[in-house]
From TrEMBL:
Organism: Acrobeloides nanus
Listed PANTHER family: LARGE RIBOSOMAL SUBUNIT PROTEIN ML49 (PTHR13477:SF0), MITOCHONDRIAL 39S RIBOSOMAL PROTEIN L49 (PTHR13477)
The name this protein goes by in its record: Large ribosomal subunit protein mL49
GO-annotated biological processes: translation
GO terms of molecular function: structural constituent of ribosome
A cellular component annotation (GO) from this entry: mitochondrial large ribosomal subunit
Xref: Pfam families: Img2 (PF05046)
Length: 147
């Protein structure tokens, strides 16, 4: 048997990590504040308990609404040969009866904008895409429902 010897020695350096740790983001997102009313940004806390509806719209993990804007090609303009674009608003994380949510959403939006709204429901993914309405109107709908 041969023994291995090393000719170097090591010494562990003492490091004060408190200066670095204060720069790191928190590992846990804080709980939803209760009874804060409407904040200056327009954010509202969800109702406690949640409303008794056949569907539920879950917020993202940072407590914001799951609303996203999509911009898609719509039609080709034959004169300029450029595509026209359409903006859609996508509402995610709908659990339960997605079609009941779409019906309530469509009635609310058509009453607000006074013209027909085009919607597309993806039941498996729990999403609704809306054409012809602004994102702020969808926010208003979700807040008024209590989610």
């Amino acid at each position: 048997m041969s023994t291995t010897t090393t000719y170097t020695d090591f010494k562990e350096a003492q490091v004060d990590w408190s200066y670095v740790e204060r720069l790191l983001p928190p590992k846990i997102i804080p709980e939803i504040p209760k009874d804060c009313g409407i904040t200056p940004s327009g954010w509202r806390a969800p109702r406690d308990p949640p409303p008794d509806l056949p569907y539920y719209i879950r917020r993202r993990r940072d407590h914001l609404l799951p609303l996203y804007l999509e911009r898609r090609r719509d039609e080709l303009n034959p004169n300029t040969m450029d595509f026209q674009y359409v903006e859609l608003v996508k509402l995610n994380q709908i659990y339960g009866d997605v079609f009941a949510c779409e019906k309530d959403l469509r009635e609310f939006l058509e009453k607000e904008v006074n013209h027909p709204i085009a919607t597309h429901v993806d039941e498996l993914k729990g999403t609704i895409r809306v054409k012809g309405a602004d994102r702020t109107l969808l926010e208003k709908f979700v807040f008024e429902q209590g989610f």
